[in-house]
């Protein structure tokens, strides 16, 4: 089983020159483009002098993703937490050495589900007047930002509560402390003392705990294929993107800096080589294999039941099922857009399909068909 990663560039990039701006419903749209892969991809200390930590102000957006919050706190993306596709992708390459195509998939998913792909802006936190609703309010009166529950953000987080239970946006000390109990049981010995280095066994135990706790406490618990894929991949980034590139270790102090303080650790170096979806997928696949759970959700009686499989060919693998579920979480109204808006939507959905098509049997594109205004 392989997790989603991009192997080719979207075909939408290979065409005649098109206008880069356009006005619809009073909004000025901007053509989204794929920046080039960074040329310097080796070991590098992060941050540099140009990116000091500055705590966010009261009007700055922050959300459920420690990596995005850290990038904003250091100015790798705009400090107000409102960024474009290209700004986020370039920052991920620079600060975390995330490979271009792997980062593009993650940002595309966010932009399609909780951003405004016409004006090419997304909030890394909640609703912001700087990110208007889609032209004509075709997806409701707000974009929501990545903190809005559903579509992309979901249940069984490592450090945020389920939206039904509590605060799904801000760091929760109690949840992280419970995660650290698993580190104490299963972690590797490190420079800070016994069992202070995260490993796959720790991530497995953490995710088992997150899922079990939330399934029991949240009557609306949902762990569908896309969310399962994302949750296991997010956990794997602890080992592959957050670890110090000089030691390849994700220690208690390093992860605490990212999760609790949302700042780069002292004397931290990014990975020595680009972090690809294939690399990150190794640990993610190990987590999934160790947790005997099919994608599903709680029924009316609070019992977790498996989701029915999607139609062929998207039932050929977990990656294809996650791709189908992904399309079900992007508003279908985006398919009927025109002009530059449609070009941006085609570009972003093309990224998703190119990622899915790297998996055997997942070779038919499915366009977004999710509900609007949710």
Automatic annotation (TrEMBL):
Keyword Oxidoreductase: yes
Highest rank taxon of the organism: Eukaryota
Residues annotated as signal peptide: 1-19
Reported cofactor(s): heme b
Keyword Repeat: no
GO molecular function: metal ion binding; peroxidase activity
Chain segments annotated as transmembrane: none
Keywords recorded for this protein, A-Z: Heme, Iron, Metal-binding, Oxidoreductase, Peroxidase, Signal
Domain Heme haloperoxidase family profile residues, every copy: 49-284
Similarity field: Belongs to the chloroperoxidase family.
Name the record gives this protein: Chloroperoxidase
């Amino acid at each position: 089983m392989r997790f989603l990663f991009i192997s080719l560039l979207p075909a939408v990039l290979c065409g005649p020159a098109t206008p880069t701006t356009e006005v619809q419903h009073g909004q000025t749209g901007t053509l989204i483009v794929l920046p080039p892969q960074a040329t310097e991809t080796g070991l590098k200390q992060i941050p540099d002098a140009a990116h000091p930590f500055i705590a966010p102000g009261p009007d700055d957006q922050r959300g459920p993703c420690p990596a995005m919050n850290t990038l904003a706190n250091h100015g790798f993306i705009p400090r107000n937490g409102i960024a474009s596709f290209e700004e986020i992708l370039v920052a991920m390459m620079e600060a975390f050495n995330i490979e271009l195509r792997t980062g593009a998939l993650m940002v595309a998913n966010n932009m399609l589900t909780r951003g405004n792909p016409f004006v090419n802006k997304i909030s890394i936190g909640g609703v912001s007047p700087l990110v208007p609703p889609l032209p004509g309010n075709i997806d409701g009166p707000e974009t929501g930002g990545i903190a809005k529950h559903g579509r992309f953000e979901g249940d069984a987080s490592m450090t945020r509560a389920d939206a039904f239970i509590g605060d799904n946006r801000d760091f929760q000390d109690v949840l992280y402390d419970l995660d650290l109990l698993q580190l104490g049981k299963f972690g590797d010995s490190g420079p800070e003392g016994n069992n202070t280095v995260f490993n796959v066994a720790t991530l497995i135990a953490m995710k088992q705990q997150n899922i079990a706790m939330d399934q029991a406490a949240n009557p609306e618990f949902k762990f569908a294929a896309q969310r399962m894929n994302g949750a296991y991949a997010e956990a794997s980034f602890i080992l592959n993107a957050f670890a110090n590139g000089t030691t390849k270790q994700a220690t208690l102090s390093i992860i605490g800096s990212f999760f609790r303080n949302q700042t780069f650790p002292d004397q931290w170096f990014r990975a020595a080589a680009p972090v690809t979806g294939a690399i990150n997928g190794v640990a993610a696949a190990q987590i999934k294999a160790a947790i005997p759970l099919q994608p599903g959700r709680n029924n009316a009686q609070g019992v977790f039941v498996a989701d029915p499989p999607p139609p062929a060919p998207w039932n050929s693998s977990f990656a294809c099922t996650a791709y189908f579920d992904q399309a079900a979480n992007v508003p279908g109204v985006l398919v009927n857009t025109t002009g530059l808006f449609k070009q941006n939507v085609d570009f972003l959905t093309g990224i998703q399909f190119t990622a899915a098509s790297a998996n055997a049997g997942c070779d038919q594109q499915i366009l977004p068909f999710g509900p609007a205004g949710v």
